[in-house]
Structures are given as structure tokens and as C-alpha cells.
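Service request form, structural biology core

Requester: graduate student, group of Dr. S.
Request type: structure prediction, single chain
Budget code: on file
Notes: please return the result as C-alpha cells.

Sequence provided:
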Amino acid sequence: MHTQFRRFAAVAALCTFAGIAHAQQPNPLDAIPDKMPFDIPYGAPISLEKADMLINAAVAEAKKRDWRMNIAVVDAGGNLVAFKRMDNAQLASVQIAEHKAKAAATFRRETKAFENAIQLSGLNYILSLDGAIASRGGIPLVVDGKMIGAIGCSGGTGSQDEATCKAAVAGLK
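Core staff response, request fulfilled:
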């Protein structure tokens, strides 16, 4: 009985110490920034002509690297403007490409920000945000400082998807 009491006391002390150690660390989410993050004003929605230009640039990049991609372009509200699935591109990635584009547009940030928040910072609450996707390959389209839409690519690894999107966005004006 005496041994059980010592075990109980040791466990209680560890729990108390762990609680104190945890309570002493400040929560980085309590910091209040001076400016709104990702505060990009909305512009006129992307035209079909520009959306097609972006998709063609993404397809050219994917072909150059022998990748098969699904590419979606949405307006600033996350509404689909144009989509292309390359031959033999992964079928599950049809919805993923559109989801990445929609998340990048509606949250006004690259989807890599969600991936980093979870993978690098342990901010698992991101998983509870409706419409977020924690996978790179969704990039906002900003022209003259205004959000006009977003592009999302899927079919390869996250880094391949991201590289395809960035190659497409490089020529956007």
C-alpha cells in the first residue's frame, strides 16, 4: 500500500509539474498583429482569356517535366472559371486542384501557408477551418495589388503541384 501511495504521489507531482511548465509558455496565437495578414483587396474577376492563358502555361510546364496535372482557375470568390485535366492525370486530383484554387482565393494566401501551419508550427486548429486545404499547389492571382482569383494544380507531389502553379503565375500581368 505504501508503494502505491508513492507511485500516486510521483504521478501527481509529474502532472502538476507538466501543467505548470505548459502554463508558463506563451501562446503565439495570443499575439495581436498591427496589420491584418493577407489583406489583399479584391479586384475585377479574372477573365476567361487570362484563365486559359494560365492553364496553358501550367500545361506547358507540366509537359516539359513529363508530369500529368489537373489545373483549375477560380475567381476571387472561389468560383470556377476554367479547368483542364491532362491525359492520364490522377482522377482524384480533379477535385483537389479546384479545392486548392478555391482555398487560395477565399483565404487570400497560398495553400502552402496551411501546410506550414500544421506541419511546421503544429497549429492543428487549421484542420477545422471550412474550405482550407493543407497542401501546397494553390496560389492567389494578384494583379496591380488586387486579388483577381487563384490557380490550383494537383496530380503530382505537393512540390510538383506548386512548381506548376508558380510557372503559370510567373507570366501573369
